[in-house]
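hey so u asked for the seq, here:
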Amino acid sequence: MAMPDDRLTTLEIRAAEQEKTIEELSGQIAEQWKAIERMERKLAALADRFLELEEQTASDVPVTKPPHW
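ran it, structure tokens below
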């Protein structure tokens, strides 16, 4: 049977390890959010650019029914 001091030491070690793990995971989550925000900005810029290009080319193409209609 473990002594009370040994049990307390074991619990303190586990708590310290868990705190370190939580801090590491928190750091990883923060980095992932930064990456997500960068990708969202790039996606928005690409969507804007696509819409601009679509507007430029849309006026050149007449909207008519195909000959088989």
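The helical segments are 4-58. Residues 4-58 form the longest helix (55 residues).
lmk if thats what u needed
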